[in-house]
Amino acid sequence: MIGGAFIISTNHVLGRYVGGEIPPMGLAFWRVTIGAIVLLPFAWNEILKQRFIILNNWKLLFVMALAFMPLGNAMVYLGYNFTTEINGGIIATAQPATTVLLAWLIIREKINYTQFFGVVIAAIGVLIIITKGNPLGLANITFNKGDLLLLIGITAFSFYSVMLRQVPSAISPMLILVVIQIMGALSLLPFYIYESISYKTVPLNIEAFMVLAWIGVVIAVIAVGMTNMSVLALGPNKASIGHYLRAVFTAGMAIILLGESMELYHLISVGIVIIGVILMSRAQSPNQRT
């Protein structure tokens, strides 16, 4: 869980670092395409064996792919064109709260009063970062569209995590990952083509290749695979508590690598969110996969 959180935090750094250089849809498309290419040779035989189960559950898998890619990763990469990397990393810590709420609404995973209190506290922490330390001025604030796009993205990630518990157990974690990536690439392809024609193409240089290799192999395969296994083993609620570590890792890398400054309200919001997530970790045992 910790290793996955650290690796995925580099996704936020890269999203901010390449913002404007590599277009967001291109970044998201090549992330899953490379990931699928890497995994496909290892998963091909299993795909053939489980093809009927996959076909019977294609609607569920396709909805998950939409949540994970166009509404998830693509929104995160797009959002980083308009906000800071520190803001993005801290806003991402709202994911446990949205996961707990969606798990309760969709699969009826129980939430106790302590967890609910944690959700409220974590939401306050995110509110502080969005309002730049002045929650009382919410009525007069103009929201940064990058922050709002990131909130859409992490909500979509939460939905994906919850729906993982609905996938039949006959479909292994690796098979889930490769099928979601293939479907994700197909769902992103029209947006990628449109972006390439109307806005900008992915540059053909060494830096772009290195970034795409990292997000396509290390993040899309290793980190997401670790996260999927955590969700399947622990349930979406408990597995989501590792997300608060991203804020710590992300903020540290932003200061060291990108030269961003840490404001007092960043520290306060991180502390509040961590308290909320710790309370949310007091979850019931997860529901079993079907």
Tally the helices. 13
Helix content: over 70%
Number of beta strands: 0
Give a short account of the largest sheet.
Answer: none
Radius of gyration: 18 Å
**Mean pLDDT value:** 78
Assign an overall shape. Answer: globular
Structural class: mainly alpha
Outline the structure in words.
The protein is mostly helical. The chain has one domain. Helix content is 75%, strand content 0%. It is built from 13 helices and no strands. The model has no long low-confidence stretch (mean pLDDT 78).
Q: Helices and strands in order, then pairings?
A:
Blueprint: H1 2-17, H2 24-49, H3 51-56, H4 58-79, H5 85-91, H6 95-106, H7 113-130, H8 145-164, H9 173-198, H10 206-234, H11 236-239, H12 244-258, H13 264-280
Helix pairs in contact: 1-10, 1-12, 2-4, 2-9, 2-10, 4-8, 4-9, 5-12, 6-7, 6-8, 7-13, 12-13
Which keywords apply here?
globular, mainly alpha, 290 residues
Summarize the structure.
It contains 13 helices and no strands. By secondary structure, it is mainly alpha-helical. The chain has one domain (2-280).
